[in-house]
Write a structure and sequence with these properties.
The structure is a homodimer. By secondary structure, chain A is mainly α. Chain A has helices spanning about 1-15, 20-30, 30-40, 45-50, 60-70, 90-100, 110-120; strands at about 45, 75-80, 80-85. Chain A binds a DNA duplex (30 and 30 nucleotides) through helix 5.
Chain lengths: ~120, ~120
DNA sequence: TTGATAGTGAACCATCTGGTTGACTAATGC
DNA sequence: GCATTAGTCAACCAGATGGTTCACTATCAA
C-alpha cells in the first residue's frame, strides 16, 4: 500500500514536472485561485468552507481546487464526507526562482517610456 | 505630443492594473513566452529575430508578443519596417512579491505526503 | 520601378477555460 | 430507515487561447 502510494506520487510528479512552470503560472493567473491559496495559508480548510465567500457555485470552486491540485499547489484529502485542502507551496518556489532571474531588470520600469519620449517627444 | 503619450500610458496602466497579476501570471504560463523574455533579457530584439528559433509561424510569435505586451512585460517600438521588442520586468516584481508571501511555506514540500502516509500507509 | 523583407489582419480551426444546472454517490445524524 | 450534507460527474455554454494559411500594407534596397 505504502509503495503504491509513493509510486503514484512519483508518476504524478514526473508528468507534472514536464511543464511545471506552465501549470504553476496558469494556476496562479486567476483571482479566485489566489484567494483560495491565501485562505489555505491560514491552515487546512474543507472544500465547502472554501466555497463560502465566493459568488460562485461549489462546483466552480471544486474545479478551481482541481486546477490547483493538478499544479501541485494544493493537496486534497478525503476524510469522511469532507475534502480537506492543504497548501503545498513547493511549486511556488520554482516560480519564484524563475522570476528572480529578472530581478536586475525590475528597476527599469520607466526607462522604456522615458527613452521613447526622448526619441519622439514633442 | 508628450502629454498625449503620457496620458495614453496612464490609461493603459490603469486598465491593466485592474487584474495585473492575472495577466502577468497568464503571460508567464507559456514556455514560448518565457523563452521570448529570456531572449529579451540579452537586449532589444527585432520580432523577426525572435521568431527564428521557434518551430512556429511568425504570426504565432507575433501573437505571443502581443500577449506579453498586453501584460506590460514587453514594450514594442516600430522603427522602419521592424518592430523592436524590449523587456519590461516591472510587472514581474509584483508577481514576485505576491509569491514571496508564501516563502515561509516552501520548506514543507513533503510534509503532506509524509502526513498522508502516516495516516494511511500499509 | 520592382522585388524582397517585416509584420499585421482576417478567417478558420481545435482545444481549453470558467461558469452553469441537474442528477448522482457517499457519509452523517436523528 | 430517512433526511441532510459534501462533493463529483456529465452535459452544456460562451468566450479565450494557440495555432494555421492567405492576403495585405509598408519599408527598404537595387
Amino acid at each position: 500500500m505504502r509503495r503504491l502510494l509513493i509510486v503514484n506520487h512519483m508518476v504524478e510528479c514526473y508528468v507534472r514536472r514536464m511543464n511545471a512552470l506552465d501549470s504553476t503560472f496558469a494556476a496562479l493567473s486567476h483571482e479566485a485561485r489566489r484567494a483560495i491559496l491565501a485562505r489555505l495559508a491560514d491552515g487546512e480548510t474543507r472544500l465547502s468552507d472554501l466555497a463560502g465567500p465566493f459568488a460562485m457555485s461549489q462546483t466552480a470552486v471544486s474545479k478551481h481546487v482541481r486546477v490547483l491540485s493538478d499544479a501541485g499547489l494544493v493537496t486534497v484529502e478525503q476524510r469522511g464526507r469532507s475534502r480537506y485542502c492543504r497548501l503545498n507551496a513547493a511549486p511556488m518556489k520554482d516560480a519564484s526562482e524563475w522570476l528572480s532571474d529578472y530581478e536586475a531588470f525590475w528597476g527599469q520600469q520607466f526607462d522604456n517610456l522615458a527613452r521613447y519620449l526622448a526619441d519622439n517627444g514633442d
